[in-house]
């Protein structure tokens, strides 16, 4: 089973679990009818260079990690639907409407959200995204097809839709474009290496890994000594203006996660930490005065490492609640 497939199935399991509770954004009553491992075929990413564009039907609850053309056709009233899109970290996602046949006056809708929402939590968080939350929604019934193409601000996006009349639906094409300085990222894989660079920009960037992981920071360059400070005091690094923090939690929104450690000063590692959380985030806060860079590696923790933590590990804040 590929790492991407594992990520998708893992996230769908969390997604379906979250849907059993209250949610401001989604109440997918049909969710219990899905077997999460049936949402993805084994040859999901079979598209190769030179082949025809990948095409398949879009489900009421779906997740996609590839480019292609996708068509949703209602076979009965589908009132609470969503599709999640994810690309490589260094890519934007473009959603293009090829054909839309829905009844907006009759209560249908089709909305794009710039990011992901899960159980009322957003990624990127409101603190990290360049747009206000209201502007991250693009409602086709309000804007019409004057905006046929919508590009995300990061490597994840999603759509919400409702279609009452059987036979109605829509076709859209998913494409990706290079992102030279990726800021907010959800990793497709439980293992990897990444360098987050913020060049003279006043912005916050979060890299999310939806797994318990051991993370090793090998290099940190900030525009202003050398140290790793666990957040045990109220001082922390926030007064410096440029820093990296390590967050852990069970939700999606970095602003609602537990601060675990701060990196306040230029650092040449390695500094390693085990984080037994469902979601681990490396977040860089930048004042815009400097070129900031952090390089880190991560790998999923083995079951025995979760059961027997030792060394530099943080697990007590992150007992799984999902």
TrEMBL record:
Disulfide-linked positions: 60-81, 104-141, 183-205, 237-264, 277-318
GO process terms (BP): behavioral response to ethanol; cellular response to calcium ion; cellular response to cAMP; cellular response to estradiol stimulus; cellular response to estrogen stimulus; cellular response to gonadotropin-releasing hormone; cellular response to potassium ion; cellular response to tumor necrosis factor
GO cellular component: extracellular space; nucleus; secretory granule; synapse
Signal peptide (UniProt feature, chain positions): 1-21
Family matches, as InterPro entries: CRF-bd, CRF-BP_C, CRF-BP_N, Sperma_CUB_dom_sf
GO molecular function: corticotropin-releasing hormone binding
Domain Corticotropin-releasing factor binding protein N-terminal stretches: 53-177
Protein localization: Secreted
Domain Corticotropin-releasing factor binding protein C-terminal as annotated: residue spans: 185-307
Function of the protein: Binds CRF and inactivates it. May prevent inappropriate pituitary-adrenal stimulation in pregnancy.
Sequence similarity: Belongs to the CRF-binding protein family.
Name of the featured protein: Corticotropin-releasing factor-binding protein
Source organism (scientific name): Saimiri boliviensis boliviensis (Bolivian squirrel monkey)
Highest classification ranks of the organism: Eukaryota, Metazoa, Chordata, Craniata, Vertebrata
Encoding gene per record: CRHBP
